[in-house]
């Protein structure tokens, strides 16, 4: 049966780098693809497909993809001005259901991308013999597609299924495994064990095809170090601690030379200018195109519209008007010398930009309320005076590898080595090194290091302890600028709360009778 696919010819032909706000590989403008023929006939066409795959991958980071995973936990409080943005995931009340559009978009984004990866993989596997000269490059792109698919399924299983448990993984339901594009297929949900097995299989394939692509700091393309980093995530999830530690160490010790920022200037290079040494992958971005979501709900920086307005602002023209501010619970995790506290949170002067910012909530300006500014924005990615929280997307960072190594060594019984990895991370960050290593210390370090990266929910689930209330900043509480009620800063979630596993979106349940809903929804 002939299957026709639309390909974003207009945008992909125009640019050889990632550059399209249209995140689907197959939007307007089309060429016909006959499954019995060739998906691409020369290196140029193959390059267009490769660009499309990277566009699909990049679209899964920042914006709602990471925000819902953060604000649904305990690190942030909703301001009175938040306008119900991410309201249901934040409250985790009865309004957080299968109709939630943020959850729906997360699901749809991954499956749309998986479709693209499947088409490319099949296209390389069925490449006619007359195009064999393309095979060497095509195998690299195929390896990237395997990596991307593994990443997408890891995202899906972490959020739409319970945490991996060896005793029940072969029975616990996860998400449908779709490995071949078929518009008419109505797949059932695969088990947690089956999905993780497929992730491993895809990573094994990626490792073979990308073995010759050496790691590089801030690489815009997938490297063997990126594959090893994703292996480390996978092995940590399935509780294979020996391999989790081994693969994390491979990346830490890579000849690429990834390095943790350990001074204010290095933090500035990393978290303001996008020129640091921490990214294992750093995807393309430019001022002229909006290639990924922005984590702007934490800042929404603006400038006073007039001199009269500026006179009201005690710190000049610039101010933040955030939907969410860091909880006291999060801020209290850091000691006073921690560079992460100094550089990622702002009440007045920002250590990265050297500018001072007040906070506008309601009609009043505040100088004593801390704002989360880890994603304050790259100045080269804004066309106005105000930073817009846009950055080059960094899907994998070296800090996470230290955390994986520390956790894996500890849970694998090597507490001494675990403490060395943990103290190395803490020392580079200017924090007081821990004297001991245990689950509470490790969980708190994950909280501090990966805040804002979209990993908080999966961390909470993996440690199996839920979270306690989102104690708010005293200044914000006394100023009455926060939303109140039992589902806001008094929210606590137990390890058994069904909300920690997201609902299968309503549309998919209605259109695919083979799907069953998660408990509680």
Secondary-structure-based class equals alpha+beta
Q: How many runs of DSSP E, i.e. beta strands?
A: 11
Query: How many H/I helical runs?
Result: 19
Return the average pLDDT rounded to an integer. Answer: 92
What proportion of the residues form beta strands (DSSP E)? Answer: 5-15%
Task: Throw out a few tags for this protein.
5-stranded mixed beta sheet, 19 helices, two-stranded antiparallel sheet, 521 residues, alpha+beta, 11 strands
Question: Which SSEs are present, and which pair or pack?
Answer:
Layout: H1 9-14, H2 43-58, H3 64-71, E1 76-78, H4 87-91, H5 101-125, H6 135-160, H7 192-209, H8 224-237, H9 241-252, H10 264-271, E2 279-281, E3 301-303, H11 307-312, E4 318-320, E5 324-326, H12 328-331, H13 339-344, E6 345-346, E7 348-349, E8 356-361, E9 364-366, E10 371-372, E11 396-397, H14 398-411, H15 415-428, H16 439-449, H17 456-463, H18 474-478, H19 506-511
Parallel strand pairs: 4-8
Antiparallel strand pairs: 1-5, 2-11, 3-4, 6-10, 7-8, 8-9
Helix pairs in contact: 2-5, 2-6, 5-6, 6-7, 7-8, 8-9, 8-14, 9-14, 14-15, 14-16, 16-17
């Amino acid at each position: 049966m002939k299957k026709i696919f639309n390909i974003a010819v207009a945008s992909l032909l125009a640019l050889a780098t990632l550059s399209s706000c249209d995140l689907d590989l197959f939007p307007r403008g089309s060429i016909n693809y006959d499954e019995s023929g060739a998906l691409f006939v020369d290196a140029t066409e193959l390059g267009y497909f490769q660009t499309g795959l990277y566009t699909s991958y990049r679209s899964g980071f920042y914006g709602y993809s990471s925000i819902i995973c953060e604000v649904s936990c305990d690190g942030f409080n909703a301001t009175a001005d938040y306008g119900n943005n991410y309201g249901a995931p934040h409250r985790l009340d009865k309004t957080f259901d299968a109709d939630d559009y943020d959850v729906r978009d997360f699901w749809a984004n991954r499956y749309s991308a998986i479709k693209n990866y499947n088409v490319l993989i099949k296209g390389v596997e069925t490449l006619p013999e007359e195009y064999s000269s393309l095979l060497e490059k095509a195998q690299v792109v195929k390896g990237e597609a395997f990596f991307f698919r593994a990443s997408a399924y890891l995202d899906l299983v972490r959020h739409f299924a319970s945490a991996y448990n060896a005793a029940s993984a072969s029975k616990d339901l996860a998400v449908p495994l779709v490995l071949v594009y078929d518009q008419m297929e109505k797949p059932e949900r695969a088990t947690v064990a089956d999905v993780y097995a497929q992730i491993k299989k895809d990573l094994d394939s990626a490792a073979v095809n990308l073995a010759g692509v050496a790691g590089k700091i801030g690489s815009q393309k997938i490297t063997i170090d990126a594959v090893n980093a994703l292996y480390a995530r996978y092995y940590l999830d399935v509780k294979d601690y020996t391999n989790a530690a081994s693969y994390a160490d491979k990346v830490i010790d890579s000849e690429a030379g990834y390095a943790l920022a350990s001074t204010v200037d290095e933090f500035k290079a990393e978290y303001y200018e996008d020129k640091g040494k921490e990214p294992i992958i750093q995807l393309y971005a430019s001022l002229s195109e909006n290639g990924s979501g922005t984590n702007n709900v934490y800042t929404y920086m603006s400038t006073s519209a007039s001199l009269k307005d500026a006179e009201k602002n005690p710190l000049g023209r610039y101010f933040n008007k955030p939907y969410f501010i860091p909880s006291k619970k999060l801020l209290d995790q850091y000691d006073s010398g921690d560079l992460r506290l100094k550089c990622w949170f702002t009440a007045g002067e920002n250590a990265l930009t050297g500018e001072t910012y007040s906070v506008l909530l309601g009609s009043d300006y505040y100088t004593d309320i801390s704002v989360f500014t880890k994603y304050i924005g790259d100045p080269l990615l804004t066309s106005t005076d105000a930073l817009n929280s846009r950055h080059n997307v960094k899907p994998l960072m070296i800090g996470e590898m230290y955390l994986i190594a520390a956790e894996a060594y500890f849970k694998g019984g090597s507490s001494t080595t675990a403490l060395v990895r943990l103290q190395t991370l803490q020392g580079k960050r200017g924090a007081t090194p821990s004297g001991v290593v245990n689950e509470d210390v490790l969980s708190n370090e994950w909280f501090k290091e990966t805040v804002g990266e979209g990993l908080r929910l999966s961390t909470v689930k993996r440690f199996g302890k839920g979270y306690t209330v989102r104690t708010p900043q005293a200044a914000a509480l006394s100023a009455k600028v926060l939303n109140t009620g039992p589902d806001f800063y008094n929210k606590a979630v137990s390890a058994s709360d069904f909300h920690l596993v997201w609902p299968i979106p309503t549309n998919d349940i209605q259109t695919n009778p083979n799907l069953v809903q998660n408990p509680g929804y």
